[in-house]
Design a protein that fits this description.
The strands form three sheets. A five-stranded antiparallel sheet has the order 1-3-4-5-9. It has a four-stranded antiparallel sheet with strand order 2-7-8-6, with helices on one face. The chain is an alpha+beta fold. Helix 3 packs across helix 6. Strand 10 and strand 11 form a beta hairpin. It contains six helices and eleven strands. It starts with a helix and ends in a 9-residue tail after the last strand.
Amino acid sequence: MPEGDTVWRAARTLHEALAGCVLLRTDFRVPRMATVDLSGRVLLEVVSRGKHLLMRVEGGLTVHSHLGMEGSWRVRSNPPGGFGPAHQVRALLATGSHTAAGLRLPVLELLRTREEFAAVGHLGPDLLGPDWDAGEAERRLVRGPDRALVEALLDQRNLAGIGNVYASELCFLARTSPWTPVGTLPAPLLARLLEAAKRLLEANKTRVRRRTTGSARPERALAVYGREGRPCYRCGTEVRTGGHGPPERPRTVWYCPHCQPPET
């Protein structure tokens, strides 16, 4: 699942393959960009901002994409091999040595680089960005004191980069119910939680297989996420799932009912 570490890694891969090179061909397969042609321009850099990707191109233009739940960018050396079903390809960018393809991208648009703020300015401090500020992230988290911790962590306006995997794992590491009102948590606990979030994303940003437990074994890489009905590594209680969020957009969280008891 694309979270901040996945997007950071995608940005690095794209930057290493394309940055500083002239785009020889571009093909954008979404209606609003159907006539866009960036060929002849140098791709200057690719950076991530939370779960967003920004591909800055000569001439003050930025290709902005968001991976959503299933999107991805893939890079192949020329001549490129297949990128999967053609109907899933939303964008192709080719240089003399590499071709990049964006697949199943729910957001793909062209912006003026000076106007990137319109797309990413609402985001909180980026866990993997130069703007990371734990104090500011904590301040934003407690602005909604009655909000469930899991929902506050997932709100990219508070801090950028956490998705369902990390939200579940961080609540477990904090030994806190995902539904605990964030305003009831002691400041030291919130500070430790943010330290853990930063540490985990930094550790995983260069790994293909994400892990939060310290174990390199795939079946033990995560503490609770995706482990419904299996025993908690800490206490042996069966891991459970629960729902949160608005009815029109329900989300799932994984937790241990013994290690993360509800507030009483």
